Amino acid sequence: MRNLKTLAVAIAAALLAANAAAQKPVAYPAKGQSAQQQQNDDGACYGWAKSNTGIDPAAVAQAPPPTSGPAVGGGERLRGAARGAVVGEIAGGHGGEGAAIGAVAGGARARQNQAAQQQQAQAQKQGTINTFYRAWGACMEGRGYTVK
């Protein structure tokens, strides 16, 4: 149970870090560009980055999370129950108790697997958005802005 709490805290921290990094970089008009010129350059660079990377950050941000398969368990709970029943019978004829313990362990494993899949999907989404913003930043720097 403690490992599950630790995993949940780690995932929450990773998601917060990913959300912070997903924000658009800031462009400073290093050559005295007007606000109107910056807006025009921003739009042009957005279009350029989108066409060169094939990534639309608005579409990526709104993409639904991947489906997690069947109800929590995805087979892990059933397999855990089966293993627990076998071990329970071997250990002294308590297959029912072993099955219950195995099902609980299988459910925990399923939740861990599901959390890991969600974390991996979030990291992939973040990498895609970062690729887009690297291209956007290169374009803006080429137009005389400092990008951070």
Describe this structure as you would to a colleague.
The protein is mainly α and 148 residues long. The chain has one domain (2-65, 72-147). Helix content is 74%, strand content 4%. It is built from five helices and two strands, in the order αβααααβ. It has helices at residues 2-21, 35-53, 57-62, 76-92, 95-142, and strands spanning 27-29, 145-147. A two-stranded antiparallel ribbon has the order 1-2. Helix 1 packs parallel to helix 5, helix 2 (35-53) crosses helix 5 (95-142) and helix 4 (76-92) runs antiparallel to helix 5.
Low-confidence stretches: 13-21
Oligomer: single chain
Largest sheet: 2 strands, antiparallel
Instruction: Give the total of domains.
Output: 1
Helix content: over 70%
Beta-strand content bin: under 5%
| Spatial order of the strands forming the largest sheet | 1-2
Question: Which of globular, elongated, flat, extended, rod-shaped describes the shape?
Answer: rod-shaped
> So how many helices?
5
User: Rg from C-alpha positions?
Assistant: 24 Å
End-to-end Cα distance = 41 Å
Q: Can you give the mean pLDDT?
A: 76
Structural class assignment: mainly alpha
Task: Give the SSE string.
Answer: HEHHHHE
